[in-house]
Amino acid sequence: MTLKPRPPKPAIGWREWISFPDLGVRAIKAKIDTGARTSALHAFDIHRFRRRGKRMVRFKVHPLQKNSRETVEAVAPLVDERTVRSSAGHEQHRPVILATISFNGESWPIEVTLTSRDTMGFRMLLGRQAIRGRFSVDPGRSFIGGRPAHLKKKKRKKSSSSNPKAPS
Q1: What is the pLDDT of residues 37-63, one digit of tens each?
Q2: Distance between CA atoms of residues 45 and 114, nearest Å
Q3: Nearest CA to 132 among 12, 5, 6, 7?
Q4: Of 27, 122, 137, 168, which cross-links 31 as Cys (Cβ 3.0–4.6 Å)?
Q5: Are 61 and 112 in contact (CB under 8 A)?
Q6: Over the stretch 67-110, which tens digit does the pLDDT of each residue have?
Q7: Domains of the chain as residue ranges with CATH
């Protein structure tokens, strides 16, 4: 019996810009971490509550690294509470939500734990469950999906009148 070769999966770099449209997070830089089972989102002011008998969680996110001014407030159904062990061996009890992630024109639901990632290099860690069967990771590439349009730096035109060394 001959097996048909599978079509190649699209590549994802070791870090990418992603979004969570249903949470109001237009862009957040994520580290792709195949060593982490579950994804983790930087969150603070986390409050669990009930709405019409359903468990919910309200939280805030600073989506841009080194920027504590931009804050997104979000509410999501609480799907679970899990004890997660960090790479340093520390255990932490975290709320888990189901959120729609968008990357490079595709959207799909993933489970995300909420935790403070203030001291970490990335505000978002995209674990292997979130990318399993969708992408192959290219550890030598970054930002394959590009930079979000609203974060692109605008190029300024140079004019000779603004250049003090330009001949008159």
Answers
A1: 999 999 999 999 999 999 999 999 999
A2: 10
A3: 12
A4: 122
A5: no
A6: 888 999 999 999 999 998 877 788 989 999 999 999 999 999 99
A7: 18-141 (2.40.70.10)
